[in-house]
Amino acid sequence: MNRPPRIAFRIAAAAAGFCLAACASRQPSAPTVTPRPVAGIREEGIASWYGGNDGFEGKPTASGEIYDGNQMTAAHRTLPLGTVVDVENLENGKTLRVRINDRGPFVKGRIIDLSRTAARELGVIGPGTANVRLTIIAPAAGRPTGRAQPGATSSRSLIAGSLA
Q1: What is the distance between the alpha carbons of residues 145 and 121, in angstroms, rounded to a whole number?
Q2: Half-sphere exposure of 137 (CA within 13 A, CB side)
Q3: Complete DSSP assignment for 34-100
Q4: How far apart are CA 34 and CA 28, in angstroms?
């Protein structure tokens, strides 16, 4: 029996299969699009606060800014960093404006973590949490939205070779 040609045939068939698979067309997956928040959109839920003696003061936030509990800032899980929102305490009617510069809260059921000063002005410091309504005032300026820009091109390449 002559086995070497059979092995060579299998190797050639496998190489041809790989080449055909690499050349097969496939629909590219749609890019992930994070919609830019629209002014006026509202969200209701529970607010909490951070920046007391919990070690956050002076540490970098998700935006890269250094956390300063004296600033009117907040953390939100999904709003783009830089988004400006009004926060209304539904329990006492107080409202103030904050800028999202961090991620959180990471406690189930909570929708926003306020800086120490924002929490004090809203009356959240004592009870620790409050029912609030968020209203988007201004989406983050100059932040990427995940949408393709007009005229943008995709850079993909295919390297094919042959075993001779």
Answers
A1: 32
A2: 13
A3: -PPP-TT-EEEEEEEE--SSSS-TTSB-TTSPBP-TTSSEEE-SSSPTT-EEEEEETTT--EEEEEE
A4: 18
Residue 65 in this model has a pLDDT that exceeds 90:
yes
CA distance 54 to 13: 64
Which residues 6+ apart lie within 8 Å of 75 measured at CB? 50, 61, 62, 100, 101, 102, 103, 104, 105, 112, 113
| Tens-place pLDDT, residues 96-155 | 999 999 999 999 999 999 999 999 999 999 999 999 999 999 888 764 433 333 333 334
Query: What's the chain's length in residues?
Result: 164
The whole-angstrom separation of Cα 51 and Cα 1 is 80
Which residue type is seen at 43?
E
Query: Helix or strand or coil: residue 121?
Result: helix
Task: Let me know: does 143 contact 66? Beta carbons within 8 Å.
Answer: no
Pick left, alpha or beta for residue 124 (phi over 0 → left; psi -120 to 50 → alpha; otherwise beta).
alpha
In the chain the domains, ranked by start, together with CATH numbers, are 42-138 (2.40.40.10)
